[in-house]
Amino acid sequence: EKSGYDYFMLKEIAEQPRAVADTLLGRIDAAGSLTLDEVRIPDSELREVDKVVIVACGTAYHAGMIAKYAIEHWTRTPCETELASEFRYRDPILDNRTLVIAVSQSGETMDTLMALRHAREQGAKVLAICNTNGSTIPRESDAVLYTHAGPETAVASTKAFLTQLVACYLVALYLGQVRGTKWGDEVGAVIRELSEIGTQVEQVLATMEPVRELARGLADKNTVLFLGRHVGYPVALEGALKLKELAYMHAEGFAAGELKHGPIALIEQDVPVVVVVPAPRGRSVLHDKIVSNIQEIRARGARTIVIAEEGDATVRPYADHLIEIPATPTLLQPVVATVPLQVFACELATARGNEVDQPRNLAKSVTVE
Ligand code: M6R
């Protein structure tokens, strides 16, 4: 069933363009308007929503973190993203105008399930974003938007993550459409770009050989750090999580703006730091900020591995290794920026002789606390 690939993870990474396209299929019409038939929460109720809370664990939580940026920007509705394991034991303030979104590949994660039960008991409406038909989380939710990634076998989530992102964008855009917020030129352009995002993922996959080579050269390192800002921050966290679970290396993701508040003390000669760079100047106010962050860490000896938009000449002088990704609207960038990090972690795990599909101590579906 690995279809010629050495590992399920490699197969699932390669399936991402299709998975992403399948998740979009039938949900955006030619005029750019969205139909999410399965979301059976009436529009009138969606218009009443005054707060969105996203709950999830692990990689799904990173998708939820990215969704927060999209929901707040496109719908102007306050949104919080919380680890399900924390949320369920707090006393969160929810009512029938709160929309809770539970994101889960398996649909069986215990903490996420308990978080959604906790939310429903308090009258909140729950929408599941899930990859497994008929699993417990969608069954217990008011509505479900399925990701169409197909079965994911490798413990490390890859195609499920990319499709969770797509589903989150669809929900955010749908909320914007129903509520009539931000429905201008920017959103129209985003919808067009989102429809094409699978092709961009394919382009990234075609250029991964240098990333694999770079990973093999880092197999004896102890630590890899990841930096990002805005939606690049959850991407950094996801890159670090992949590396921990697959390569068993110390890996940490930071918001680049936090560097001076502590993490910069970790920078020493030759420590690899992966930096996710937002769109170049003019399209992201954060571009220049991250370029100075790269200069700061490089001046202290870091070996910089820079993921940046193709043609971004400003970062080039500060990148010891440059990984180029296609241009996309800022909020969609995580879809393309995550792919090299998956390949990087998979290759490092292989180089270190680890079991890629079944990392030690981990289970695909965490059905206990
Ligand atoms: O099935 P779920 O999406 O609810 O699983 C959540 C996490 O357990 C999962 O994403 C985990 O972090 C992955 N192993 C990450 O690669």
From TrEMBL:
| Swiss-Prot/TrEMBL catalytic activity | D-fructose 6-phosphate + L-glutamine = D-glucosamine 6-phosphate + L-glutamate
From the Swiss-Prot or TrEMBL record, state where the protein is found. Cytoplasm
Q: Please tell me where this protein is predominantly located.
A: cytoplasm
First-tier enzyme category under EC: transferase
Domain (SIS) ranges: 42-181, 214-359
Which terms under GO biological process does the entry name?
carbohydrate metabolic process; fructose 6-phosphate metabolic process; protein N-linked glycosylation; UDP-N-acetylglucosamine metabolic process
List, from the UniProt record, the residues annotated as the active site of this protein.
K364
Listed under subunit, the entry gives: Homodimer.
Query: What function does this protein fulfil?
Result: Catalyzes the first step in hexosamine metabolism, converting fructose-6P into glucosamine-6P using glutamine as a nitrogen source.
This chain's protein is named: Glutamine--fructose-6-phosphate aminotransferase [isomerizing]
Protein species of origin: Streptomyces oceani
Q: What taxonomic ancestry is recorded?
A: Bacteria, Bacillati, Actinomycetota, Actinomycetes, Kitasatosporales
Task: Name the gene.
Answer: glmS
